Amino acid sequence: MKTEWYQHPTRVIQTNLQVRDTARIEPQRLAGQIKSLGANALVFNLGGIYAWYDSQVEGHHVNEFLPAGRDLVAEVIAACHAQNIRFIARFDFSKIHDEAYLQHPDWVARDQTGSPRLIGAERPGGWSLLYHTCMQSPWRNEAGGAQVLREAVSRYDFDGLFYNAPFPTDCWCDRCRSRYEQLYQNPMPDDANDFDPSWRSEQMRDNALLLRKAVKDEKPDLPIILYYWDEQIRYLDQPVAELICDESQNILSRGRSRLSADWTPMVRMQLCQAAQPDYRPFGIIHSSPGMDWRHTGLPPAEYQYWLSQVPAAGGSLWHSLTGIPDTILDQRILHSVRIVNAKAKQVESLMETASPYTEAGLLWDGRPQDHGWLQALSDAHIPYTLLQQEIVSHRQLEACQVVIVPSGFTWSPHLIEAIDGYVRQGGHLITEGRLPDTSDTLRELSGLHASQVQSEPLTAAYLRLEPTGHALIPSAFNEVELLPLRGSVTYARADRADCLATLVPSFAPLEAVGAPPERASLPASRTKIPLITRNQAGSGQVISLLFSLSDLINEFGLHDHLVLAEQLIRSQINRPLVHVSRQPGIQMTVFRCRDAYLLHLINGIGKRPLSYLNPVRVTIDLPGLAADRIKARLVFTDQPLAVSDRDGSASLTVELPDAWQAIEMNQID
Ligand SMILES: [Zn+2]
After folding, report:
1. Residue 519 and residue 407 in one domain
2. Which residue range is the domain that position 396 belongs to?
3. Cα-to-centroid distance, 157 and ligand 1 (Å)
4. Mean pLDDT of residues grouped by 10 in the chain (669 residues)?
5. Number of domains in the chain
6. What is the Å distance from ligand 1's center to 119 Cα?
7. Which of 297, 428, 572, 587 fits 330 for a cystine, CB–CB 3.0-4.6 Å?
8. 134 C-alpha vs ligand 1 centroid, how far in Å?
9. Residue at 269 is within a domain
């Protein structure tokens, strides 16, 4: 039985308060606004850079705009609790004011030359100077963080606490230098990119444990929320927080060529859930198109598209706004918050007991090749899960009908062993690129000869689908003989494996591909050099790609490359649950909840950043399930959905009028 509030789906609003607006905060009114926006938790500033109460901790700068003779924090907490809204206290120990620096110069971070690291030194407007603090300093630890937390936790009845900017600032002070040298037996490098990969995590862990103890000594049950960081699964051997949060930034101010990938919020939520499976992660979405433009809102269509991905991927929505509703300058932001919160609330009872349903597993390290395969899975609406080799289990592998390992992946011995067992017991595997020389197990699985040679980069080359390949790829390439190929390939001999595709070598160097056309004929239109092979291993099957399809998808994104990836993956899924009509721009997640399936569709059709939510119709086929055995409804309107029969299987047609549609499907016995 789940008893703690944070074990249930939550809708959070964080009001990034500006001290100069302090007088405009009316606790009762604010709590009412948070409720009317559909949230059930408020993140409110308490301490760190500014104390929002009369703190007695030395160096803790009290907000000079606080109302005299009142306790604003206590009033806001009481107002929230009266409306059944949870109050999450925000702390930020990453910076201090100049008056604290003058008294405690050893608290601040130093650059390579030993000079203090300032932030916003050239900022106009009569502000005090702020200094980055050193993670090893007393301020981040006992003298500041721990004391402030003890004071706040013992004084106020809040429901959770959240550290903003909890990560270490790069610092070359003597304390950091000597700790670094002690840990790694090497002097600290001048370039932060050369720091040992564990340095950041070492500092994070020690600091988080110390602050955690300060909190838990006072209130053992108070949940702590900490930012997820990718390396934590490698370096944390004990919990440092109950809950994790993550920001899926959509920074349009970086320019159109640097847009975040379409699926960013979904992927971040999946990674958080893998790292901390016990609780729902928070997905923080900023309302602005960049911090430089934080006083404006994301285009409403783009914003709703981005927000909807968090609950559709199983996360709790956390809205990060600039100010309170009364001071927000783009009031359209509030409409979007209200719309998506209302939908999130409607699916909560189903999501409460839901667990992700998956068909394909993608080994994930966050590299470009992983992105290429993710793009293929996402465009093809194949339910996927991201597998991280540090924490991948046999159970996770067994849940996948096919596992994909992108090129350039660094296989650990543990992973090789797990994959070997998975395939031999009937699992399907797709590997891309050259397999590690050292692994006989993988060579054995692939049915390829151990001797493999990497080619030079090929330019005007092609991939020819062999007749056996056509059997695997039924109709998509019936009228196609060659697919474009570029990049380095692996020359390997297929010992036992079937050959599904072969190499057609470059017909000319790049400077001669266009001229003259009279010389464009292929000097070798057929070879026996395999590029895609299939091998039976135990009860399972291995498809080996001896070129990087993911690089082609990333670089060129040609329809044929995406279709080839989709067909290769689908051919390895024997029991597909759903087949959604191919519409790139639509993303899908599937959950199992009790006897039902819950399917989320996110509509991002159009050119990003989205100006409009383009209504679209999607067909959902359920292969193998008879139409009279399925009952379906649209969750947000509670309308039944007609189930028709298509070639003996159930089929649904769903309209997506806006960013997010959820469909509940029950099987009738
Ligand atoms: Zn330092």
Report:
1. yes
2. 360-570
3. 34
4. 83 95 97 98 97 98 96 98 98 97 98 96 92 98 98 98 95 98 98 96 96 97 95 86 95 96 96 90 97 97 98 97 96 98 96 94 95 96 95 93 96 94 97 89 92 93 87 80 96 92 94 91 95 96 97 96 95 94 92 93 96 96 92 97 94 97 92
5. 3
6. 16
7. 297
8. 4
9. yes
